[in-house]
Amino acid sequence: MAIPRPKAVAGILISSAMAVSLSACFAQGNTPAASSADSRIKVAMLQPPRSGLTPLSDDAFKLSRWKTAETLVVLDALGDAQPSLSTAWKQLDSKNWRFELREGVKFHDGTLLTAEQAAASLTAASAAKPKPRILDGVQLSVRTDGGNAVVVTTQTDDPLVPQRLSSPQLSIFATSAYKPGGVVSPINAGTGPYVLASADGTSSATLNRFTDYWGEKAASSGVDVQYVPDGTARAAALRTGTADVVEAIPVGQVAQIKADLIHEVPMPRTNTLYLNTKAGPFADPSVRAAARTTVERATIVERVYEGRADVAEGLLGPALPWAAKERQNTSYIETLKKRAETAPAAGRRIKLGTFTDRAELPEVAVQLEQQLEAAGFIVEQEVREYQHIEADALAGKFDAFILSRATVLDSGDPVAYMFSDFSCKGSFNISQFCDPEVDAALSKAAAIPAGPERRAAIAAAEALILSKDAAVPLLHERVIQGNQPGIHNVERDPRERALITSKTEITSKTGIAG
After folding, report:
1. Dist CA 124 CA 174 (whole Å)
2. In the prediction, which pLDDT does 24 show?
3. How many whole angstroms separate alpha carbon 431 and alpha carbon 399?
4. pTM to 2 decimals?
5. Do residues 494 and 264 make contact, with C-beta atoms less than 8 angstroms apart?
6. Which letter, b or e, does each residue of 203-232 get, where b requires 16 or more Cβ atoms within 10 Å of its Cβ?
7. What's the Rg (C-alpha) of the chain?
8. 100, 176, 200, 309: which one has the fewest Cβ atoms less than 10 Å from its Cβ?
9. Contact by Cβ (8 Å): 189, 177
10. Alpha carbon distance 364, 375 (integer Å)
11. What percent of the chain has pLDDT over 90?
12. How far apart are CA 322 and CA 315, in angstroms?
């Protein structure tokens, strides 16, 4: 019998300890062969809340994935708007849209959904500082129209208002959610099939079935969430049966898990190297060009992702199948030819940052460091948990930053992402990038109705951004989601909006319980 190497033994011991720790956290629901009506679903999630679960931040996507918060509309697989809390809508003119509300909807605190409260929720979001990302570049106001409808008005023509209102950051909450000082608490204040009963900071959250839900009642009695940033621990939770549903299994852990527990989900998510265009070595376009030409994307895909990713040719990946065709256009190709000539690295020092929450990113940083140093750069790495590094990244304290970025997270349309990351006033502009030509291209794309012309304008904006080397797209991810065989109807959503739904249920318990 082969004797395990010390490193392997350490890994086994660490995984076992993590599984025991998580088992204790989830112990409340670890009973074998429970019926779906009485079973609670145990979920191990990747990232803890960044902003106390305020729905005006990215934490809103957790609320959506737990099915506790809801929006006026939702998006189907094609990105088209479908009814939710609103049953019908109509564009009155280029700046005004009327949304009829579903009748008889109760908030979790027992109050009824009214036009006044829907308008108040949307108004609070539009007035928030910072604004929800979906509203970057958008000024909107909301008023009631009778007792059961609201009219949403935008300052400029906006053909994607319904798609914007599908963003989890624009979920509708009861009056009780809105506290003094601009604080918004989603506890016991949403409309979904699960009530957020409690939230324990960055550790856990507890949700229970909402018996007065307007739609299909939840098949399970509740959801118990643990935040598990460590990828090895998440894999251990799946492998041992400690968790029923697990987000983002690291590629390096897949070989240790039974194949029937693993589900690969192609994502509209791009692993991107953002370059600081405002200060430091990469303020020089020719130095940014040198970094771009140095990066070997295929090597990163093979060595870090074991081939479970797609080499990036642009910011938008295979999840948007039209993007590749647009890149074949002559105008796109000609725009890329305007890139700056490369300058020698000549011992330039750069500070490269990323975070540990996605287990592959530190490994990507190692590969990039090797590639950049081979070209003559001197690289200093800084790696922390995301919640401890995001502020520094947004403040421009890194010369380069590696981020795994969802490109159609909000409206189902990439213009919002491009505004957020690459416009002069973008709220997530890690590259500190500002270019009037790019802003004009994004504004043009934003004004065009959904369809072929809009897609062409989006591609033109992408080409401009890439021609400035504000960012170097590396690869498009396929997220690996895990769930136990006895768990059914778990969503595998490329937009990362849905996970647990009314239909999610446990028909049997397998693996290690207790």
Report:
1. 12
2. 53
3. 9
4. 0.71
5. no
6. ebbbbbbbeebbeeebbbbbbbbbbbbbbb
7. 23
8. 200
9. yes
10. 17
11. 74
12. 13
